């Protein structure tokens, strides 16, 4: 009996190790990036368009997989209509007309793809580049912290006077429903607009909590990959890949849960305005917002934020690598069980933020894995971060620090077809010493 029990214990330990998974960063017993993601979209030939989408969609419409659609100019779904997109459907954004698709307030999009048959928005050009077309915009009636409601009218270069109502967002319904985006890829979006900067891959303005966002990949966007203005959204298993601008930008009182998601930056791709994995702001200008309303609140869990440098020290010395996360005044970020690897530094606080108990309780980092960063947490324009290091390095937060190459840290990041960005199990040499990752030998 004793031998049987010992054998059973050994068996359970072996099985436990086989099926164990790293708790930090993106997680899953299996690699959830398989099948539906694409890390080399320029090599895909999606075929020639067979149908055109243009003007306003004012009645319910279904796009079928059997057709390939050319998105021409600024297309709006209005009049409480629902646009349904079948799994596997291809929508090609026209380069010449700066095509974009906007789901206006009250309208709905049901883009519910499959793991083996994702919905794809991409560029019309044979040689595709970031910013070839506009992007996808969802406008809802959830609150912001602005005075009055907002508008995205500046994004559209030619807009009829009676169409301005279709660009408005904002209201008081946190639970509003703009539809479903699931197993969707958005490629080469972010067209530049002279008066408004850049479109984003996916802009969510005042979108409510009943809207579903799962398994969305945005690659090679010239603007932000994901921008969330106000509203209350939950993003699950989303990917930003080599955006020119920010991977995730939150502003104007956005409430967001960001779960089990991935951002991969390249130091050799960046906009003039700078680029970060995450930017959390509550306003652009203080006069824009009502401070009696809640500021931006982001809760992030199991993220992997990765800088893909060939030579991190050289790239930092050349000014090509920035911080992974920037947090502005009056904004809140609660990050847990996440990985930040290869940045300069990992986190930067706006210099307007006072380091006191109230603000430190609004900005939390716990169970984190800081790897190979040139410093961890700093205040903007201040090289002395001892107070922040002592606070977040406290053993109560269970943050760990390491200096390992990406190829050693993650399971298989060099596999072009099936990369795996989960942490390696039991192969991470990490320390609770919060100074462990500071010395990369970077020149002053």
UniProtKB/TrEMBL annotation:
PANTHER family the UniProt entry points to: LIPL48, SECRETED PROTEIN
Q: What is this protein called?
A: Uncharacterized protein
Q: Which organism is it from?
A: Thalassobellus suaedae
Lineage, opening ranks: Bacteria, Pseudomonadati, Bacteroidota, Flavobacteriia, Flavobacteriales
């Amino acid at each position: 009996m004793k031998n049987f029990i010992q054998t059973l214990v050994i068996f359970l330990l072996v099985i436990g190790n086989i099926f164990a998974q790293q708790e930090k960063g993106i997680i899953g017993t299996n690699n959830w990036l398989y099948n539906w993601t694409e890390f080399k979209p320029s090599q895909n030939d999606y075929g020639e368009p067979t149908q055109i989408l243009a003007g306003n969609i004012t009645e319910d419409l279904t796009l079928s997989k059997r057709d390939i659609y050319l998105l021409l100019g600024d297309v709006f779904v209005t009049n409480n209509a629902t646009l349904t997109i079948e799994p596997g459907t291809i929508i090609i954004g026209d380069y010449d007309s700066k095509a974009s698709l906007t789901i206006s307030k009250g309208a709905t999009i049901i883009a519910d793809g499959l793991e083996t048959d994702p919905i794809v928005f991409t560029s019309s050009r044979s040689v595709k580049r970031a910013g070839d077309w506009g992007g996808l915009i969802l406008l809802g009636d959830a609150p912001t912290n602005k005075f009055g409601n907002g508008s995205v009218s500046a994004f559209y270069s030619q807009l009829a006077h009676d169409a301005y109502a279709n660009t408005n967002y904002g209201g008081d319904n946190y639970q509003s429903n703009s539809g479903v985006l699931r197993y969707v890829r958005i490629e080469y979006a972010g067209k530049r607009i002279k008066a408004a900067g850049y479109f984003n891959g996916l802009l969510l303005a005042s979108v409510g909590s009943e809207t579903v966002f799962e398994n969305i990949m945005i690659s090679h966007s010239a603007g932000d990959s994901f921008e969330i203005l106000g509203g209350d959204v939950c993003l699950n298993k989303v990917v930003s890949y080599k955006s020119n601008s920010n991977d995730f930008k939150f502003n104007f009182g956005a409430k967001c849960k960001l779960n089990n998601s991935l951002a991969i930056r390249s130091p050799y791709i960046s906009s003039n305005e700078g680029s970060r994995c995450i930017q959390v702001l509550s306003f652009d200008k203080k006069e824009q917002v009502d401070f009696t309303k809640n500021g931006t609140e982001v809760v992030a869990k199991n993220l992997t934020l990765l800088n893909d440098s060939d030579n991190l020290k050289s790239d930092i010395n050349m000014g090509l690598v920035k911080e992974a996360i920037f947090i502005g005044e009056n904004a809140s970020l609660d990050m847990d069980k996440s990985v930040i690897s290869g940045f300069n530094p990992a986190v930067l606080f706006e210099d307007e933020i006072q380091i006191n108990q109230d603000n430190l309780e609004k900005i939390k980092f716990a169970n984190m894995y800081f790897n190979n960063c040139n410093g961890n947490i700093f205040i903007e324009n201040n090289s002395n971060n001892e107070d922040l290091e002592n606070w977040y390095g406290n053993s109560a937060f269970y943050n760990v620090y390491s200096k390992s190459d990406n190829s050693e840290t993650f399971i298989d990041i060099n596999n072009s077809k099936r990369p795996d960005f989960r942490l390696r199990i039991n192969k991470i040499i990490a320390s609770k010493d919060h100074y462990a990752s500071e010395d990369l030998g970077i020149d002053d």
